[in-house]
Amino acid sequence: MTKKEKENNNQSKIHQHTKMGKSRRNRDRAHRSDPVGKPKPAPTDPELAKLRESKILPVLNDLKASDPKKRTSAAGAIANIITDQKCRKLLLREQVVHTVLTETLTDSSLESRAAGWEILKVLALEEEADFCVHLYRVDVLSAAEHACNSVLEALKSSSPVFSKLPKAQQGFIWSIAHALSTLIGELGQAQDEILKAVTANTSIARFLFGLTSHSSTTAEVLSSALTCLMTLSEDNRTLCEMILNDQETFCYRNLKKLSESGGLRGALSCGVLHNLFSALEWHDHSPGLESACDAILVPLLTREISSARLDVEDTHWDVLQTTLEVLASIATNLQTTLEKGNKAEDEWEGIKDDEDQVMDLDDDVDDTVEDDYMNGDEHSDDEAAGQDDDSEMDDEELMADMEKVTGADHEPEEPAHLHDLPTLSNFLEAAVPSLIRITSSSPASEEALAIQGVALSVLNNLAWTVSSLDFSNGENATVRKVWYPVGCAIWEKTVAHILSNDTADVELAALVTSLAWAISRTLGGKTPVHGDEHRKFISLYKAAKNMPEPAQAGEDPFQGLGVKCIGVLGQLARDPCPVGVNREIGIFLITIISAATEVPTADVVEALDQFYDIYGDENLACDNEVFWKDKFLEHLEGAVPKVKSMVKSTDKRKQSELRLRAEEAATNMPRFIAYKKKHRPS
Fold first, then answer.
1. Mean of the pLDDT values across residues 453-467?
2. How far apart are CA 119 and CA 368, in angstroms?
3. Which of 100, 146, 431, 629 is the one with CA 20 to 30 A from 552?
4. 3 state DSSP class of 465
5. Residue 67 — left, alpha, or beta (φ > 0 → left; ψ -120 to 50 → alpha)?
6. Going along 224-291, which residue ranges are E strands?
């Protein structure tokens, strides 16, 4: 594989959003001084000094008192006030962690111990990842192991039976179990070294497995245990094998049952199973026990979102959030499934994530219908109203609409099926209609807006996975036939809908633009653009200059909203794009290239790459009608010195990837210019 091919093979993964819950936090960063170290001097701020004297010091003194009732009362009080930021910072200054670890967690009072674990749980949730690192370094896992064993002993005890214990005592035990599960999850995602230590601790594994199997485990504790398992099992083959091979509680079997139960525990169980399938490489072409792979999870997760509405106040946002995050991860993992399948079957000859990979639909798509898409610049009021009504369609209507969205002439001669790709098939048939409905709705609250964003991430990941396939020379023809109406439906009902609302939300804009880019990579010039949608992306590019960059763009300049807008527009300009639209996009691209020293380097690089692809074939209509008539060659030649200067100003050491791609784009300029001159029309 060439260097360029390797580069292209990673592109779809770069644009996917794969996070389930919170990602691990072991990033290089400047660490604070030891948050559990020596006590600090009294604060100079009068308000904090007063709070310290009136509330913090008295309760800490009681926490160390000889009277067990005082200690228990103080531990409970600290567990309540530690959620307040000012109190929490003051308590940390006074070494509350040291006191909890050395005294509270070993207190004779069960209530005190429960409060102690609650304190550590809140601190782990509220503080930065380095707090968990410091906890690990002071051997919190030993205390956690002891507590895990104690909880399990209480749950399994036959004398007395757990259910016969006083309700208060049961409550404290469940409180410890909940705090431990949450704390262990936070520790595991703080640093890879800690994750390995947690995984190697069989007492912790037995504790988590036991909570998922015990009949009386409360809903809150079960959710926290499953969340912990989902966090720890991600990319963790060792733990996944432990889950599969557990003969004490039969954790794997219990997870399968829980995954079918619906609600939050069902979604979380699906998340753990997805991690297990991924770690053990149980894919469509190599399923595991009882043909297990992600294909069995998609219908279960889809059931949870099939009736979801973003305009209902009592919607279970946490369930939707988890469900969609698991679906997003499955959509990304599909690329691995396809890669494995390509190696296993002769009809699949590998993944190529090439910018040129646009479906060749000439054999399957009638050009008359294509013209209806590409030339329909204006629509009647009735059609516009019809688009508004689409958001209220149920999933069956959406599915039917997807099947006919490209018109009768676009139907393949024979029905297309994805029997050998059940995960992708289930995704397209079951999940996508619900995802389209959610993403094309109008969120009425912050919670609903967040859910819409995660649903967009699912579609984005799915579209980028499909766009990574090689559709040249008739490869993956079945996927092409099945995906085409789906891609068109997503564009028309989700992308166009959000674009029409002129969103000022930069994260939402980045998501929908990334989705649009992925879809246009597979549909190219046959993308069902109606009216002036290409101008929306041009306007969005200009508006992006005044917007803060999305979070991902800080790490990778090619994740910027501007680059994504350029990517979409470059794909929309591909043949058979109408000449007028091609001209507008071509002028937009050459303007960016001509301003090489004044705009972000990544924007110029992407604009050059798209420009080469659009105008590289002299046999296309846009070559004579746009490239030569609008004198693009002269503009390109005039931009060469600026592009060279831009490359030189890009630091190799600080931005190696950007410099490499800039050098490649600049090197191709004289070659492209020479080629065009050689093929100048007579």
1. 96
2. 68
3. 431
4. helix
5. beta
6. none
The answer to whether residues 497 and 440 touch, using CB atoms and an 8 Å cutoff, is yes
Length of the chain in residues, anyone?
A: 682
pLDDT of residue 453: 94
Residue 8 has pLDDT above 80, yes or no: no
Torsion of CA 635, 639, 640, 642, to 10 degrees: 170
| Residue 345 burial class via C-beta count within 10 angstroms: exposed 0-12, middle 13-18, buried 19 and up | exposed
Tell me which amino acid residue 677 is: K
- On whether the CB atoms of residues 606 and 565 are closer than 8 A, the answer is no
Helices (H), 306-356: 317-344
Other beta carbons within 10 angstroms of residue 260's beta carbon come to 12
Rounded-to-integer distance, Cα 331 and Cα 424, Å = 8
Give the range among 68-77, 229-238, 411-420 with minimum mean pLDDT.
411-420
CA distance 365 to 632: 32
Least confident piece of the model among 31-40, 223-232, 606-615: 31-40
636-641's contacts with Cβ under 8 Å and 24+ in sequence apart are 636/590, 636/593, 636/611, 636/669, 636/672, 636/673, 637/673, 638/594, 639/590, 639/593, 639/594, 639/596, 639/669, 640/669, 640/670, 640/673
Query: What is the DSSP secondary structure assignment for residue 351, as one 8-state letter?
Result: B
Task: Give dist(CA 510, CA 489) in Å, integer.
Answer: 20
For the chain, the straight-line distance linking the first and the last C-alpha, in angstroms and rounded, comes to 39
* Tokens of residue 317, six digits: 């946002």
Please report how many Cα atoms fall inside a 13 Å half-sphere around the Cα of residue 155, on the Cβ side: 26
Question: Can you give 504-536 as a three-state secondary structure string?
Answer: CCHHHHHHHHHHHHHHHHHHHHHCCCCCCHHHH
Q: Report residue 445 CA to chain centroid gap.
A: 21
502: which DSSP letter?
Answer: T
**Which of 162, 141, 140, 160 minimizes the C-alpha distance to 151?**
162
Rounded to the nearest angstrom, the gap between the alpha carbon of residue 583 and the centroid of all alpha carbons in its chain is 35
Residue 126: other Cβ atoms inside 10 A:
13
8-state DSSP, 552: G
What angle (nearest 5°) sits at the alpha carbon of residue 588, between those of residues 584 and 593?
145
* Residue (of 524, 404, 418) closest to 472 by Cα position: 524
Phi, psi angle pair for 575, to nearest 5°: -60, 135
Amino acid at 396: E
User: Which residue carries 């009136």 as its tokens?
Assistant: 54
The structure tokens 């954790």 sit at 251
Q: Is 563 exposed, middle or buried (0-12, 13-18, 19+ CB in 10 A)?
A: buried
pLDDT beyond 90 at 226: yes
Nearest partner of 462 among 383, 420, 519, judged by Cα: 519
pLDDT at position 22: 46
In this model, does residue 7 exceed pLDDT 80?
Answer: no
Q: Name residues whose C-beta falls within 8 Å of residue 490's C-beta, 6 or more positions apart in sequence.
A: 432, 436, 459, 463, 515, 519
Taking alpha carbons only, the member of 57, 65, 59, 158 closest to residue 109 is 65
Using CA atoms, how far apart are residues 383 and 236, in angstroms rounded to an integer?
51
Domain borders along the chain are: 349-678
pLDDT, one tens digit per residue, over 382-435 is 444 444 444 445 655 655 554 544 333 344 445 567 888 999 999 999 999 999
From the CA atom positions of the chain, what is the Rg in Å?
29
Contact criterion met (CB below 8 Å) for 189 and 24: yes
Please state which CATH class domain 349-678 belongs to: mainly alpha
Check pLDDT > 80 for residue 606.
Answer: yes
From 90-99, 367-376, 582-591, the region with the lowest mean pLDDT: 367-376
